[in-house]
From TrEMBL:
Protein name: MFS transporter
Membrane topology: Multi-pass membrane protein
Native organism: Sulfobacillus thermosulfidooxidans
Predominant location: membrane
A family per Pfam: MFS_1
A single Gene Ontology CC term: plasma membrane
Subcellular location: Cell membrane
UniProt keyword annotations, A-Z: Cell membrane, Membrane, Transmembrane, Transmembrane helix
Stored Gene3D superfamilies: MFS general substrate transporter like domains (1.20.1250.20)
Single GO MF descriptor: transmembrane transporter activity
Sequence intervals crossing the membrane: 49-67, 173-190, 211-234, 240-257, 269-287, 293-310, 336-356, 362-383
């Protein structure tokens, strides 16, 4: 049996996870801003950003298999430590590379280790064996990251403007060292008897819905992110501080999404999914109208809020009633489907000829597809509500 929610070990692990999340999130801003400028310097084309996101999507397609192979020999904590060591070395390597292909190869290693970390972290998110506590911890992690996002990008943009953007990779490595110290304080989780049964609690239909939604959401959102970077750099002609503000608004919107997530009951999460896609549609339509920087910032907040709500709601739905390695494999499956969507989205941008990559037109198409999906999810929510009502009535 998993530890109870009130156990000292559970509370301590939550604290170390939050501290680690804050530290690594701050360091990530130095790396991401440095990467945005570095890739623009090496290859000033929307395809360069697409290659960046593409390399981030591929690893999740096979990290589930890797985790299944190593979980019998190594604890979740050991895997998390290993991935931090790899990312620390990768950050130092990025500081030294000077060619686009080298940078893309290192980013692939970064993405693989990050994907493996997220899978290994899942048992700690479900350690309390309590669906409400799982959602609460996920919302706290989101808000911790978002609080850092309020100051991190602007701080990183200002520091890198003074010392050169390539130094951002070294600063990122330092924060991974700090994160390693926090991860080392986590308790060790051993597999629990019968945990394989917990994955069968909900019906297959409700398990498959999050997989489909995360697949489509990643496909749309990451195409939108690539086009947003292109819009910012090539149409609005903004630099490090403006890019830092955009990242701040995107990440900081998670403060509001975390508050909303804690106030929604587990049974309401899927019913509100259509609303978040509706907000995405509105935001992308606004950007498609050739707007200025101020309105672009407003749209970024709406996109960020909607994306965090979609991602964290689906994670809570999938992880609730799971524990240990069952939770890790469920998280891996959700992550793999999400990255498949990202992979296909980036593949579309990479393969399309540059002459037809009209930014405003692509945003219009994204808005249309998000609106269609919102309508489909509304119908799904009505069907599920009626199905639940009939099932409750039949059991009386």
């Amino acid at each position: 049996m998993s530890q109870s929610v009130s156990s000292p070990s559970s509370h301590q692990d939550e604290f170390w996870l939050l501290a680690n999340n804050a530290s690594v999130s701050l360091g990530a801003h130095f790396r991401e801003i440095a990467l945005g400028l570095f890739l623009t310097h090496l290859n000033a084309s929307p395809k360069a950003y697409a290659w960046y996101f593409l390399m981030g999507s591929i690893p999740s397609l096979f990290t589930t298999y890797i985790y299944q192979k190593i979980r019998r020999r190594y604890s979740s904590k050991s895997v998390m430590v290993f991935t931090y060591v790899i990312r620390l070395l990768a950050a130092i390597t990025l500081w030294q590379v000077s060619h686009f292909t080298q940078a893309i190869a290192v980013l692939f290693v970064f993405a693989a280790s990050r994907s493996l970390y997220q899978i290994a972290e899942a048992p700690y998110l479900t350690k309390t064996d309590n669906g409400i506590s799982t959602g609460r911890l996920i919302s706290w992690l989101r808000q911790t990251e978002s609080l850092i996002d309020l100051i991190g990008p602007l701080l990183a943009g200002w520091v890198l403007m003074l010392c050169g953007y390539r130094q951002g990779f070294l600063i990122n490595a330092v924060f991974y060292l700090i994160g390693l110290a926090f991860i080392a304080r986590l308790s060790k989780i051993s597999p629990t008897k019968g945990e394989h049964l917990t994955s069968q609690v909900r019906s297959a239909r409700r398990i498959e819905m999050p997989l489909f939604v995360i697949w489509v959401a990643n496909f749309l959102v990451w195409i939108g992110n690539v086009m947003s970077m292109a819009y910012l750099f090539h149409i609005l002609h903004k630099g490090p501080l403006s890019y830092g503000l955009i990242v701040t608004l995107w990440g900081g919107s998670g403060i509001f999404s975390g508050q909303v997530l804690r106030r929604l009951s587990y049974t309401k999460l899927s019913q509100f999914m259509a609303l978040w896609f509706g907000l995405l549609a509105i935001s992308w339509f606004i950007i498609s109208q050739d707007i200025g920087y101020a309105l672009f910032c407003v749209a970024t907040v709406l996109i960020g809020f909607s994306w965090w709500m979609i991602q964290d709601s689906l994670t809570t739905i999938v992880l609730t009633s799971r524990s240990g390695h069952s939770a890790a494999l469920s998280q891996a499956r959700l992550q793999a489907f999400g990255e498949m969507g990202s992979f296909l989205g980036m593949l579309v941008i990479v393969l399309l000829p540059s002459r037809i990559l009209h930014i405003q037109t692509i945003f219009q198409h994204l808005a249309l597809w998000a609106l269609v999906l919102a309508g489909g999810l509304c119908i799904y929510a009505v069907i599920i509500h009626k199905s639940d009502h009939c099932r409750i009535h039949d059991t009386k």
